[in-house]
Amino acid sequence: MKHTFILLLGAMLSLQGQAQDKQMKFQNTIPVEAGDSHATIIEKAAHVVPTPNQLAALQNEFIAFIHFGPNSFTRLEWGSGKEDPKVFDLKELDTDQWCEAMKAAGMKMVILTVKHHDGFVLWQSRYTKHGIMSTGFRDGKGDILKDLSESCRKYGLKLGVYLSPADLYHIENPEGLYGNLSKYTTRTIPREVPGRPFANKTRFEFVVDDYNEYFLNQLFEILTEYGPIHEVWFDGAHPKRKGGQTYNYPAWKKLIKALAPNAVIFGREDVRWCGNEAGGTRSTEWNVIPYQANPDTMSNFADMTDKDLGSREQLYKARYLHYQQAETNTSIREGWFYRDDTHQKVRSTDDVFDIYERAVGGNSTFLLNIPPNRDGKFSPTDVTVLQETGQRIRETYGTDLFRQAEGPKEVLDQNADTYLMVDKDGAGIVISTPRPVTLNRLVIQEAIAANGERVEKHAVDAWIDGGWKEIAHATNIGYKRILRFPDVTTDKIRVRILESRLTPAICTISAHHYKARPPRLSAQRSMDGLVTIEPMAQEFGWKAHGENIAENLNAGFKIYYTTDGTEPSASSTEYKAPFQMGNSELKAVAILNGEKGATLQERFGLVKKGWKVTGKTSQSLAIDLGSQQTVSGFAFTPQKQGGKGTVAGIIRISNDGKNWKEVERFEFGNLINDPSKRYHHFKQTVKARYVQVEAAEIAARTEAAALAGIDLF
After folding, report:
1. pLDDT for the residue numbered 240
2. Alpha carbon distances (Å) from 207 to 177, 212, 542, 586
3. 335-355 per-residue burial string, b: 16 or more CB within 10 A, e: under 16
4. 646: how many CB neighbours lie within 10 A of its CB?
5. Where are the alpha helices (DSSP H) in 106-192?
6. To 10 degrees, the CA torsion angle through 570, 573, 578, 584?
7. How is residue 28 annotated by DSSP?
8. What is the CA 39 to chain-centroid distance, rounded?
9. Radius of gyration (Cα) for the chain, nearest Å?
């Protein structure tokens, strides 16, 4: 009876909501009138919906970026436009390998940088020689866009293109068209080139200057000769400008809409930048955005980087309300272009999967760049991360734990076209399973195409020990919200709408379980002897997003430790806060759902409180321990940057800081490839107040860093 009542209630709410919404038309852009009250503005915001193209782009969810060009060979992020095309010394190309790896990751589309800011083109354009046609690749006949287009068809991937409006080649070249102060006249697009006719006979006439004509001609080539294009990506970056050059975006837009009717345009009215290149996400990502001018007729779109873009307070300031979704873009490597496989770090699978859940599960699209190497392939490390990420996505979201559940069929049928109108003051949506299930992910979607974004705050409860217990809460939902929480075992879940803009329409609720892994641990000790244990942070310095990946993916793990050399277990001391530790060995382990992670083993030496550096050169370091100590060896931790492959040296001791006695000699090798802590144990213990380390090189840049890199036992 309880479930029947909920279904009847849902039907009544659905009729009520439909009657309410008939008073206002659903649109992609809705103007705000001068006399509109706050309530009217919010009602209008609740009627802003995505276009069919925007909805299809959101449904792609996880897509790829490919940065490839001269920078891949010069190892630069931005070229100058003055490069000889032959620096693009490509011998082989395997776009099938790209697509196979992207498909394995679960990606649905790939966007190729067919022209970056340097102006070098990756297809056989009729309108320039600064590109692939002027290289030795396939005797100048190669066409990377063509190869990729064919591979996309083979692997079932959509294709998009990045065509930079900026063009350093046309700025730096004396005959370049960018900013050449040419007159605006009527031009026919495409301009005919003898011997290179177009199969597509569509023609346009635009009043444009030389550079805009060049750009439109290239757009025509790309959009008519390489199969369906589903996204055109316009970067807003400009390394250099010239001659007051402006862009005739209305002409670009008209051509794109005519030749690629299914494409969204990034950087303009369809899709916006998330505001960072690190994979950072907002906790609340509204896609209904306020504008001061009509975005359907605008030419210039500023980057939106504020934390709050679509709250009620922001909407009240609007003159137009517009649906414009975000793409969360970042690179799998440190940088957009490939440099090497030695020093250029690659994101871990944990990191990529975490960004996927935050981006896709936070009402945006995840755009991940994978730069091909100089052999025309994705490097093995990148491929492994893509494969592992795809495997985690399939393992986690390929099985819906509500598949046999009872509840409103509109939210359980996995059909975005069926939905349930849910009042925020109602009893919520209750879903029951035939037997208890263990879940730690819940996916909720609104029917945004039919009813727009409406939920402002929601919560999820589980039936535990005879009562409801809240297990998760968040703000908006939009296209998709993924809620993450520690494992919960229950046979009943309730979703409550706490705040909303009119009556929300919920189309999907599904439950999933992510097999969390206990994180690897690291430990640090302060100069005062205070030890901190935490999940090991990924060494990835490029545009860090600041998220705690281990907390996001492995919520609920606990850390246990020992200081007497015994193996830690769930019966050992639980780590809850930093603690004092002297000259002894730490062992620690993370445990999650009964599974133990790798054991951390760290030997801490004498506490450094009171130590002073009394002498330091480029090759030696003298330390005053403050009092006489018994020393049985020392450890050296290489700095992350700098240093040589091998450090050899001498350890000396003194009791007055003037008269030194050699104790032993040491040598540590392979420090670049393995920059881990190295130990040297003395044959006999010694007593000393002063210790001197003399080495071929001390890889430290300050006295504090040098002191931090030395431990004495």
Report:
1. 86
2. 16, 9, 43, 74
3. bbbbbeeeebbbbbbbbbbbb
4. 14
5. 144-155, 168-172
6. -110
7. S
8. 36
9. 30
- Look up residue 301 and give its amino acid: F
Residue 705: is its pLDDT beyond 70?
no
- What is the CB neighbour count within 10 angstroms for residue 372? 23
Percent of the chain that is helix, strand, coil (3-state, to 5): 20, 35, 45
Amino acid at 222: I
Which DSSP symbol is given to 333? B
Q: Which helix (H) or strand (E) holds 561?
A: strand 558-562
pTM of the entire structure? 0.89
Residue 347 corresponds to which tokens in the numbers above? 């994101």
What is the torsional sign of CA 288, 292, 296, 301?
negative
Q: Which residue has the tokens 């100089």?
A: 374
Q: Give the tens place of pLDDT for each residue, 550-603.
A: 889 998 899 999 999 999 999 999 999 999 999 999 999 999 989 999 999 999
- Per-residue pLDDT tens for 23-54? 899 999 999 999 999 999 999 999 999 999 99
Cα separation, 96 vs 81, in Å, equals 29
Tokens standing for residue 283: 């906790």
Strand partners, 188: 205
State how far the Cα of 520 lies from the Cα of 261, in Å rounded to an integer.
48
What's the CA gap between 282 and 269, in Å, rounded? 20
Give me the count of residues in the chain.
713
At residue 365, what is the residue type? T
Is the pLDDT at 702 greater than 50, yes or no? Answer: no
Residue 300: exposure state from Cβ atoms within 10 A (0-12, 13-18, ≥19): exposed
Tracing tokens 């994979």 back to the chain, one arrives at 279
Write out the H or E segment, with its range, that includes residue 12.
helix 2-21
Tokens 């049928």, located at residue: 413
Other Cβ atoms less than 10 A from the Cβ of 576: the count is: 8
What is the secondary structure of 507-544 as a DSSP string? EEEEEE-----PPPEEEEE-TTSEEEEEEPPP---TT-
d(CA 511, CA 429): 14
Any idea which residue has 């130990």 for tokens? 679
Q: What is the pLDDT of residues 455-466, one digit of tens each?
A: 999 999 999 999
Q: Determine the Cα–Cα distance for residues 79 and 115; give it in Å rounded to an integer.
A: 11
Specify the pLDDT at position 667: 83
Q: Give Cβ neighbours of residue 271 (< 8 Å, ≥ 6 apart).
A: 54, 57, 231, 264, 265, 324, 325, 326, 327, 365
